[in-house]
Amino acid sequence: MDPNQYIAEVELGDVEEQETLLPSDQRISFDTISTKHRSIQHYSAVLAGIFFLLSSFAVVEIWRKPSEAKCVKRLNGWSPMLDAVQYQRVDFKDESNVSFMGIPTAHLEKKWDDLWRFGSLGIPETYLPYLNKSVSEYDWHHLPSELGGGIQAYFEGFHQIHCLNLVRQYTYRHEYDYSHVHAFVNPHIDILEHVEHCLEILRTKIMCEADTTLYSAAHDLERGSNGPIHTFYSRWTRSEEMSVSDDRSKPSNSLWIIRNEIWRSVTITKQFLPKSLYALVD
């Protein structure tokens, strides 16, 4: 007999003998053990697959859900200011900020001017396609080369606040001397025509971005706020990261602007600008 066959028969006999020595209720079938093992492997694979699918679904949903910053970029044209927008939710009352209201004074005029007088900046011609425009479309005004060059551009948000301010000033034109304000003495455009232009700018803005927030009515307004809760841009720039200088020498990390016909610069740190605009501030 083949020695290997003999050893195999002896070992098999030993196993069978051991099985017969165990009580019937303690005997374990090797087939049963193998079946249970396969079942555990099967359930583990199913659970792993379910976990993977749920994780993938969660990642896709998070990726698809637009952030506030993405919403702003979808609702606005390209601008180097997009990454500087901040948000906060505010429940405010009517006439909640009276510091911008009332009969004009020098202090009040300065507060309004500080909201929007940030001048202009130079945009490279290569960025015109981002604005859906072309070099040959208009006779663009360029900034001097010593200020970095580029097509002169303004931030529309500041333009809109200027328009609101001009309407306010026109309302109080008989209570305050605005003879030093260019809009009131501009020989190229009548002040009323300018005001109507501004009203149209504001009407278009409001109608194109209609506010769907509910404005609730109340009999006793003194008991609480009847103003809506808004999520709005708390700042367009971060003041702690921006400074204005009359120095004509070009500082590092700066965008050049024209303000009140004086060469000035607005310093904005790179972290608030797209990488593609770094060339403007280097």
UniProtKB/TrEMBL annotation:
UniProtKB keywords: Membrane, Transmembrane, Transmembrane helix
Pfam family, one: UstYa
InterPro entries recorded: UstYa-like
Top-rank taxon: Eukaryota
Claim: Oxidoreductase is one of the keywords in the record: no
Record keyword rRNA-binding present: no
Residues that span the membrane, as ranges: 43-63
This protein's pathway: Mycotoxin biosynthesis
Gene Ontology biological-process entries: mycotoxin biosynthetic process
Similarity comment: Belongs to the ustYa family.
Protein name: Tat pathway signal sequence
Gene source species: Penicillium expansum
